[in-house]
Write the structure tokens for this entry.
Amino acid sequence: MPESWQSLKDGSWLLEQEACRLSLWWPRFYGYYLVKLGPLAGAFDTSAARMQRQWHMGATGQLHFAGSELPLQGRSVDVLVLCHNLEYSKDPHQLMREAERVLVEGGHLVLTGFNPLSLMHLTAFWKRSPPFDGHFYHPLRVKDWLALLGFEILADDRLLFGPLSSKTPHWLEALGENYAPFFGGVYMLVARKRAIPMTVTPALSRQRKRVVNPLAGTVTGRVARLEAPKAPRE
């Protein structure tokens, strides 16, 4: 995992591009806790999010984290931010399961990654230098993982349609956004954890009512009233 954006080729420019797109989402989030996972996510300015507390979790963050298991209680986080964590995780499936575990019902997951089916990747994957030294996962595959974990995809945004360079012409970006959006070099997913309904089904409701025998009290009462001994007629 890169220790900073500066360790990536044109990292400062890449951070600016991703932060600009995500800045539209931060004001929409509210709750108690927002956690940014890893050194890259920690560089995002999330002050516009209406959260009571915000934490940066990583090797050098406010909360220490290393590996795929998060040292957080289940259902304790309202917004979790993963920035290119899947590419460098030894167990990305476990990391996704941990994200689902720590999020509250209705909580949001913000996830960014590099798209292997893009011009940016095809022109530089053979160099094996950051950020191309990780394992890239196609966004459709990541969305399948999220669906299996019970997430609802709210947004799927793509950007950077040319090589990883701050000198990429604007016309190439505009061409990609308008005619080939699925080939963006970076994808951004915003997903919401579905809440599990806790309603009682009518069948179970009827079964619970039948636990009490409806004849237990009424029959005894009728016997006492209707079958009382009568005086014989003379």
About this structure: The beta strands are 30-37, 50-57, 77-83, 103-114, 151-159, 186-193. The helical segments are 11-22, 92-102, 119-122, 139-148, 170-179, 202-209, 215-226.
